[in-house]
Amino acid sequence: QVQLVESGGGLVQAGGSLRLSCTASGSSFNSYAMGWFRQAPGKEREFVADITLNQGFTDYSDSVKGRFTVSRDKVKNAVFLQMSSLKPEDTAVYYCAARGMTPRIEYWGQGTQVTVSS
């Protein structure tokens, strides 16, 4: 059984930084890429960033490009999200996700709250 476990959320002031971590466990884990989505209150879940585990190819939403950096540790099946220059509109529950070679998400984490105060 595959599990994704996130950590690193919290409360930060606007302009500050946070780093999220997510580690996948389970002997059957064999995903092609890992990344992050977020869901703000009253809004749909949206893509933030992801990275392919072998090649390290990255993709970002326009709203975070230049402020967030996604990285991975392919040996540990872990993905990280370094968030800088945070804005109040970045406030959301952030979910770790893993997918195959298509955009369909195979596994979700439980979510971690990020709150940015103005």
Integer-rounded radius of gyration: 13 Å
State the low-pLDDT regions, or none. Answer: none
Tell me the number of helical segments per DSSP (H or I, 4 or more residues long). 0
* Overall helicity: under 10%
End-to-end Cα distance, whole Å, is 40 Å
Largest sheet: 7 strands, mixed
Secondary structure category = mainly beta
* Count of extended strands: 11
> Residue-averaged pLDDT, rounded?
96
Query: Which percent range describes the beta-strand content?
Result: over 45%
Please tell me what the overall shape is. globular
Order of helices and strands: EEEEEEEEEEE
Provide the descriptors you would attach to this structure in a database record.
118 residues, 11 strands, mainly beta
Q: What can you see in these coordinates?
A:
The protein is mainly beta. It is built from no helices and 11 strands. The strands form 2 sheets. Strands 2, 4, 5, 6, 9, 10 and 11 form a 7-stranded mixed beta sheet that branches. Strands 1-3-8-7 form a 4-stranded antiparallel beta sheet, with no helix packed on it. Strand 7 and strand 8 (78-83) form a beta hairpin. The protein is globular. The model has no long low-confidence stretch (mean pLDDT 96).
What is the strand and helix layout of this fold?
Blueprint: E1 3-7, E2 10-13, E3 18-25, E4 33-39, E5 46-52, E6 58-60, E7 68-73, E8 78-83, E9 92-99, E10 105-108, E11 112-117
Parallel strand pairs: 2-11
Antiparallel strand pairs: 1-3, 3-8, 4-5, 4-9, 5-6, 7-8, 9-10, 9-11
